[in-house]
Amino acid sequence: MGTSITYYLQEMLRGEWLRKFLFVKTAPYETPPHFRDYPRLTGKECNRCLNCMMICPTPGAIEVLKTEEGWNPVIYPGHCIRCGLCVEACPEGVLMSGRILESQFYENTGYSYTFHLTVDTTRCMRCGNCSVACPINKEEDPQLAAGGTGANDEVIMRVKGGELQILHEEKCTGCKTCEETCPNSAIRVARVIEAIHVAEEEG
Amino acid sequence: MSFLQSIKNTVRSRSIHVSYVNVGSCNGCDIEVLAMLAPRYDIEQYGIYVHNNPREADILLVTGAFTPQWEDKLKSIWDKIPEPKAAIAIGNCPISGCVFNRRGSFVDPPVAKHIPIAAEVPGCPPRPTEILNAVLSLAPVVFKDYEEKQQ
Amino acid sequence: MKKTVDVSLPIGPLHPCFKEPARIRCETKGERVISAEMDLGYVKKGIERIMRGRPWQEVMFLAERVCGICSVIHNMVCIETLEKLSGIDVPERAAYLRVIVNELDRIQSHLLANFSYCYTIEHETLSMYLLNLRETAMDMLELITGARVTCAYMVPGGVRFDLRDEDRLTLEEALDHMEKELDRYVGMFKNGPLIAQRSKGVGIISRDDVIEAHGVGPVARASGIPESDRRLEHPTYRKLGFTPLSYEDGDNYARIMIRFDEVYQSIGLIRRCLENMVPGPIRGGGTVTAGEATHAGEAPRGELTYYVKTDEYGRIIDIAIRTPSIMNIESCAHYMLEGVSSAADITSTFISADPCIACAER
């Protein structure tokens, strides 16, 4: 017994042990690599397909903005819920978060989309805000006037004869811009999304 | 710096009492605050003590988008906390309303409209380490030399 | 002359034992509770209202945020309802992965409930042990799904991520570790004389009262109604040969012990899933179409029912959620709290029913 007491006394009177006992804190717990953190840019080029904005379940969490380096998605912490859907939906692999990109590569998982525009004619006021705001319309017909009237047949939707016409539903990218600009919630984009294995689709 | 102030600084740096209030969150952030109690994160080594009594608290953790029931209650809880005090918004809901901030819901974010918020921890929900870091980095800013700053 | 004073004792909305705001109004005689009422409505957000008109990829996240503690089961039942109404089949591997994640979520929820109970009866050592054990379950959830609390793991027709082989070994190790540690903690709970005094015979609810109050989940199973478990009707659980457990006493002790036993059962279910799992696809595809369906699943707190009606593009027209907590709160306030002999037992009885206010109000 005597030896063990001296052993413990020797052990505990060492300066290093005392310092550890009094001052050392447990190391801060590290974030594991598989945690889906806020999406980060991988450095690949964004082709501005707006799939990330289309699939995002949160209002105002992601935006594709133009900077000096070109178009790039911007994540807003405080809105982003770190679900990782934008990372999975991006066809170019611009964003990364946790192990999502890696597992998507090995498991060949992805989503396929179709979009449908529905207009509630009882609510639509034919103001044409949706036609003017639509980013696809802007590319197809830059001259589309305020009020959404124009002669170009290539646009997705336009106001003609006092009525909102949907001409090319298949060109829609589901970006929700028309929904947000509509003052009366008349136009809705139905985003039908299917969770699939990409390899099966191709083969 | 006076001697009294330095004693107060030393004591306050190792004794941070935390109270949390749920003003309409989904529980996700609440259980992450609770998980912070676990021996793995071991908050008591930093002198943080979590309990739910605003009258003893130094830091108030607010979780949740603001629901109408709390209009008067959150203010009165805030008034009950003795000075010096600070409030931290935990999670996306008190910052922006997150997924609940949509047409037709009853919430009224952000919480900063109702009580002064000193720090925000984004995330849905934030990890316990993120909450811990926020508390630890806010505490010296608020509590150090509090009396001298008041003069 | 002895005088008895009737006191109305309010507890809450902010109280050290509550994690969420709720208010119990107890009519007491001395310290004995005569009747109790619950005041709810502090966290009403109107989730069902904002779900309307949205496709599944938004509703899924809103459904998860009905309740943060049992988020996986909300996700699972919501997605399974959508699959039921549009006739989507799930690949076998995905079905097993769903059960694994769901049972991990059940483990962490039950451990959290038992932590709260031990914390309320001031057994801080055991509660901290349980909370630390819960972190292991959270780690495994994070390993498989990538997030600790709101996992967003299930999508119509499958799951989002596969379980890798190296992760499978980690999961098996963690299960062994959890089982070993849990043996110790259950022994502490069973053999602690003070715990038994605080728990046995307190907050009794009989089988007939549970049926009358529509109690569900561990509350019902602790009073001898094992058939209340909705997992019996789930095809994957049937394949695994699931049999529910039950206790007869219906007091606080039985409610805590049934949760401990279900943690063991969940560990067994995960092991059986891992044995039966064969490599294969994890997503079957399939779009949500028009339809109307009701589907129920077993949340950690009891039966959870979703009624969903969709339009042709899979957007929700109408949705109604029935969560288990509201029934358990009812049975707690009107049956368990009646006759509780001290104010300290009010909070512990309330916590033993594991009420989830965010679930109940949405």
Question: Could you explain how this protein is built, in words?
Answer:
- The complex is a heterotrimer of chains A (203), B (151) and C (362).
- With 203 residues, chain A is an alpha+beta fold.
- Helices cover 29% and strands 23% of the residues of chain A.
- Chain A has helices spanning 2-12, 15-23, 51-55, 85-89, 100-107, 129-133, 135-140, 177-181, 198-202; strands at 40-41, 62-67, 70-75, 95-96, 109-119, 157-160, 163-166, 187-197.
- In chain A, strand 6 (157-160) and strand 7 (163-166) form a beta hairpin.
- The radius of gyration of chain A is 27 Å and the shape is elongated.
- Chain B has a five-stranded parallel sheet.
- Chain B is built from six helices and five strands; from the N terminus they run αβαββαβαβαα.
- With 151 residues, chain B is α/β, with parallel strands linked by helices.
- The longest helix of chain B has 16 residues, at 128-143.
- The model of chain B has no long low-confidence stretch (mean pLDDT 84).
- In chain C, a hairpin with a 2-residue loop joins strand 4 (154-155) and strand 5.
- Chain C contains 14 helices and eight strands.
- The model of chain C has no long low-confidence stretch (mean pLDDT 85).
- Chain C is α+β, with helices and mostly antiparallel strands.
- Chain C has a three-stranded antiparallel sheet.
- The longest helix of chain C is centred in the N-terminal third of the chain and has 29 residues, at 92-120.
- Chain C has helices at 47-51, 56-64, 71-86, 92-120, 124-145, 165-191, 193-199, 207-213, 218-222, 235-239, 252-276, 325-336, 343-352, 357-361; strands at 6-11, 23-29, 32-39, 154-155, 158-159, 291-299, 302-310, 316-322.
- Chains in contact: A-B, A-C, B-C.
- The B-C interface holds B 21-32, 34-35, 37-40, 51-54, 64-65, 67, 69-70, 73, 77, 98-100, 102-107, 124-125, 127 and C 13-21, 41-47, 49-50, 52, 58, 61-62, 64-69, 71, 112, 115, 128, 131-132, 134-135, 138, 148-150, 356, 358-359.
In short:
By secondary structure, chain A is an alpha+beta fold. Chain A has helices spanning 2-12, 15-23, 51-55, 85-89, 100-107, 129-133, 135-140, 177-181, 198-202, and strands at residues 40-41, 62-67, 70-75, 95-96, 109-119, 157-160, 163-166, 187-197. Chain A has a two-stranded antiparallel ribbon. In chain A, strands 2-3 form a two-stranded antiparallel ribbon. Chain A has a two-stranded antiparallel sheet with strand order 5-8.
